[in-house]
Amino acid sequence: MLDSNLVRSVSRSFSLTLLALPKRKRHSVALTYLLARFADTITDSGKWTVPERIAHLEAWENAILRKDPSLWILKGTLGSFKESEAHLLLEGSKLISAYKELDSNDQLHSDELLKTLVSGMKWDLKTYANASVASPTYGCRDAQAFDWYCYTIAGCVGPYWVRVFGLPSSLEALAGEYGKGLQRINILRDVVEDWNRGRVYLSEKDLSSAGSESQPWKKQGWSTFMKSYLEESRMKLRHGAHFCDAIPKSQWRLRWASMMPLLIGIETLNTIEREKRFSDKPMKISRKQVKRLAWKALTTVVLRRSISKRAELRV
User: Fold this and answer.
1) Where are the beta strands (DSSP E) in the chain?
2) Measured CA distances, 9 to 13, 98, 163, 294 (Å)
3) Is the pLDDT confidence value at 305 over 70?
4) What pTM was estimated for this model as a whole?
5) Looking at the predicted structure, is the pLDDT value of residue 1 above 70?
6) pLDDT of residue 247
7) Which of 3, 44, 54, 86 measures 20 to 30 Å from 11, CA to CA?
8) How far is CA 294 from CA 118, 168, 263, 271, in A?
9) Three-state SS for 138?
10) CB-facing half-sphere around the CA of 2: CA atoms within 13 A
11) Alpha carbons 35 and 30: distance in angstroms, whole number
12) Per-residue confidence at 2, pLDDT binned at 50, 70, 90?
């Protein structure tokens, strides 16, 4: 059985969400999360070279899809990784072995999700391989490319969520838009930090109106860009609200777990819009705010209220 401490060591917030999920699917979802988090650690953490990261990602994906722990061979030093990250990477073979024992349908859903996520991670590595603050790389040429990226790196989790919990397939589109909305918030929140690494995820075509040649968030046109960006992001979160409302009210655990990212996303957008500042430190809401939102979500699901009709949420 999966060690819950491993999940907790890499994400306290997700470990809490996990407790809210229906018991019959906790193990499957937790294991899928760890497989994805493993790939993300390969992509973004430590100091491996880009070729090393891509080689490890491909080996990891191959081991997952073939359900063969022997295909995963960790090469290179882990000295540049945090302790929790290194510990996760050392558990690779055990994770694949546990994955082999999952229900075949759950494996199918997880395979599709992980293939999509890993494709996005490899695109990220290859696209920004030579990025530098002196010569920023614009990865997404236009809004369509940006939308594709948001789906590949996060939106794809929505359809997985629908399938693994046996919700109506008609909800997949809403769930996908919801996931893209959350990723749009992450990208906006981290825009300065990414710029300082030479990485620009925002649409180059849309950003050009704000003055994309250097630190666009300081340019006069940024407010116009932001207004449009925030409106589109809120629209996608509105889809998320309708998705949450569509989950049967009797499944209150699933509704709560699905609603928490929505409330956090809305609060983060409100903070960004209100403060209108961008610095090297990404804007994050406090733990106190998260706790308040957790209670709001719990109250909503227990009283069987609609989240999409609550005006104060601005969605």
Assistant:
1) 137-138, 199-200
2) 10, 18, 27, 21
3) yes
4) 0.91
5) no
6) 95
7) 54
8) 31, 26, 8, 18
9) strand
10) 27
11) 9
12) low
Handedness of CA 125, 38, 60, 179 (dihedral sign): negative
Closest CA to 45 of 89, 92, 3: 89
Neighbours of 44 (CB within 10 A): 12
Instruction: State both tokens at 204.
Output: 């180059």
Question: Domains in the chain and their CATH numbers?
Answer: 1-127 (no CATH), 133-315 (1.10.600.10)
**Residue whose tokens read 């061979």:** 73
How would DSSP label each residue in 30-46? HHHHHHHHHHHHHHHST
pLDDT of residue 315: 44
Q: Where are the alpha helices (DSSP H) in 45-91?
A: 50-66, 83-89
Looking at the DSSP assignment, which residues form a beta bridge with residue 132? 135
Q: CA 226 to CA 217: how far, in whole Å?
A: 9
- Reply yes or no on whether the pLDDT at 191 is more than 70: yes
Please give the backbone phi and psi of residue 300, each rounded to the nearest 5 degrees, phi first. Answer: -60, -45
| Average pLDDT score over residue span 132-142 | 90
* Whole-number Å distance between alpha carbons of 234 and 260: 15
Q: Could you tell me if 170 and 239 are in contact, meaning their C-beta atoms sit under 8 angstroms apart?
A: no
Per-residue model confidence (pLDDT) at position 3: 58
Q: Which two tokens stand for residue 104?
A: 């075949």
Q: How confident is the model at residue 40 (pLDDT cuts 50, 70, 90)?
A: very high
Cα 180 from Cα 92, distance rounded (Å): 28
Element (DSSP H or E) covering residue 222: helix 222-246
In this structure, are residues 23 and 55 in contact, taking their beta carbons and an 8 Å threshold?
Answer: no
For residue 293, CA distances in Å to 4, 133, 241, 243 come to: 24, 37, 14, 18
* pLDDT-derived band at 312, boundaries 50, 70, 90: very low
Locate 256 and state its tokens. Answer: 């709560």
